[in-house]
Amino acid sequence: MTRVCVICEGQTEETFVNDVLVRPFAHQGVYLSAALIGKPGHKGGRVNLQRLTRDLRAILSDPAIYCTTFFDFYGLPADFPGKQDASALPTPAARAAHLLDALTQALSTHLDAQALRRFIPYVQMHEFEGLLFSAPDALARGIDQPQLAGAFHAIRDAFATPEDINDSPQTAPSKRLAALYPPYDKVFHGSIAALDIGLATIRAECPLFDGWLSTLEALGPSEA
């Protein structure tokens, strides 16, 4: 089997990995395990290069393990490698590529080549909740608010893909959800809605997310 540790920004991403991704990947011989960034007992958040480097050194010290990240671009601090320059680029794809290149370069001074080869960086554009706009009707059903389907469609239809739904304190995907449904709970509702939407639909609507999962799938089952 191939083991992949997914370092998650917070409990929302951790729950999504456990509830939505683990089983289908296990069927392909790729065993995902989610871990929050930071020390044990930490609730996630406050992503920074120092904390990520420390986690990667510990995880990748086992030569049989791969490691990836599941962070929100929106929540990264301004001094995260590549964040400021990436924010000025015109498309989510360009922003993601620039930031992940900058992160890999920054880590190359902290990790040896053997460890860096087993690191697959990923940042969700712009937030995890963007994925939920892949199917507005299912999102509305998933949070038990079917009357909001029309409002969710209006948000989704204003952008080329759910990953284009923009990042700002007012317009980030989670802010839009909370504005329409104030009781929205990221951890609880996020995973339930994702299960209602279905992984295949999310992958079909979100090309960057799909590319990340395709890279993990390509690792395939280990012969060990």
UniProtKB/TrEMBL annotation:
Annotated Pfam families: DUF4276
What InterPro entries does this protein's entry cite?
A: DUF4276 (IPR025455)
Query: What is the phylogenetic placement of the source species in the record?
Result: Bacteria, Deltaproteobacteria, Bradymonadales, Lujinxingiaceae, Lujinxingia
Q: What is this protein called?
A: DUF4276 family protein
Superkingdom of origin organism = Bacteria
